[in-house]
Amino acid sequence: MHSTVTTHTSATRVPDPRALAVRLEGVGKVYGTAEGAVVALRDLTLGFATGSFTAVMGPSGSGKSTLLHVAAGLDSPDRGAVWLGGTSLAGLSQARLTVLRRERVGFVFQAFNLMPSLTVSQNIGLPVRLGKGRLDRQWLREVVARTGLADRLRHRPSQLSGGQQQRVAIARALVTRPDVVFADEPTGALDTTTSREVLGLLRDIVDTTGQTVVMVTHDPVAAAFADRVIFLADGGVAGTLEAPTADAVAERMTHLGTDRC
């Protein structure tokens, strides 16, 4: 249900019997041409189950950021197909993609990306207001409670700690009840203790609300909060790890590119 807004993208939605929040089938992406061409993704086929927490890891240049951008509809693949729930992203105009991302995709970044002139409450509600929709007040109260921001709603970002700012960013990502939240190094700017608090919050949100989270990270400890880790190397899947531990993730990362996991 996406009751936080009054209108939705007009893209055709069909039931997905496999209950995948996001799926990529045979996706390829190349930047540049001829001798300067860089293959970012190689015939990538992946699915992210609804209500799951997936970490994506790999060395620099492995395709992590490109995967996130293509899966979120921020960039288009050169070949293959991307589905958000039952909606194919192929052929959608930029205007329709913008509406789809605003209503059905949440984003959390390392740099928080909050509006400094807005209060916490205004920052959280921004995606709905940009879409000229109606804020679901009951869901907003639940999001605020889960992120521990009830006593910070009138503050501005400059009055918050880094961890509190990231909690605002997570609340903003959740306010439209999206199909999926994409988190790009969400704890990269935080200290160890605060990082674990934020990761614990993401884990709790997945467990208690059924939210789907896909997180790019370089940190084995962060990846251990996920249900599954997908390892990328040279634009392809180099292996997966279910129910990961930090030690197991670190061991896999050590061998990436040598034994293809």
How does this model look, in words?
- This protein is α/β, with parallel strands linked by helices and about 260 residues long.
- The chain is about 35% helix and about 25% strand.
- Helix 3 (about 120-130) packs parallel to helix 5, helix 4 (about 135-145) packs antiparallel against helix 5 (about 160-175) and helix 5 packs parallel to helix 6.
Beginning-to-end CA distance, first to last residue: 38 Å
Q: Largest beta sheet: what is the strand line-up?
A: 6-7-8-3-9-10
Roughly what percent helix? 25-40%
Q: Could you say what the CATH topology is called?
A: Rossmann fold
CATH class: Alpha Beta
* Whole-number tally of structural domains: 1
* Main beta-sheet annotation: 6 strands, mixed
Query: How many strands appear in the DSSP assignment?
Result: 10
Number of helices: 8
CATH architecture: 3-Layer(aba) Sandwich
Shape: globular
- Helix-and-strand structural type: alpha/beta
| Series of secondary-structure elements, N-terminal to C-terminal | EEEHEEHEHHHEHEHEEH
Radius of gyration computed on alpha carbons: 18 Å
Beta-strand content bin: 15-25%
Whole-number mean pLDDT: 90
Low-confidence parts, pLDDT < 50 over ≥5 residues? 1-17
CATH superfamily: P-loop containing nucleotide triphosphate hydrolases
